Amino acid sequence: xxxxxxxxxxxxxxxxxxxxxxxxxxxxxxxxxxxxxxxxxxxxxxxxxxxxxxxxxxxxxxxxxxxxxxxxxxxxxxxxxxxxxxxxxxxxxxxxxxxxxxxxxxxxxxxxxxxxxxxxxxxxxxxxxxxxxxxxxxxxxxxxxxxxxxxxxxxxxxxxxxxxxxxxx
Length: 169
Fold this sequence. Notes:
The chain is an all-alpha fold. The protein is 67% helix and 0% strand.
């Protein structure tokens, strides 16, 4: 069943493949002398375990919970959860900055950037247009190339003009 909630597809940063391939290559080199027949399977298995461990260490559970609540269209419940995700990465900016090397995300957008857009989206869905617009504008100040924030602000402005709302006050 298709989701009724709009999501913007995450663009992949192809540079992020380099650390992943490097890690897999190093594991292959480590296992090759031990078993020349099935070294690749051992390397893949250990790589898989490493990525699970790193996601467990560096992805807070609230992140998955927030995404789940948004998909279930429980926007009011999602707001504090998404805010916890943002707070987590604001306290640990190095995790977000080096997410490629930690093998936890290959998205072009930072986790903080995506989570902030999710927060703005939640506010928009519960009718707090002004708050949503403020958050999207903040996203654009920090990340001027964010297509999601640009398009959502355009949509808010067009919808506000059509409905006769004033979102500038």
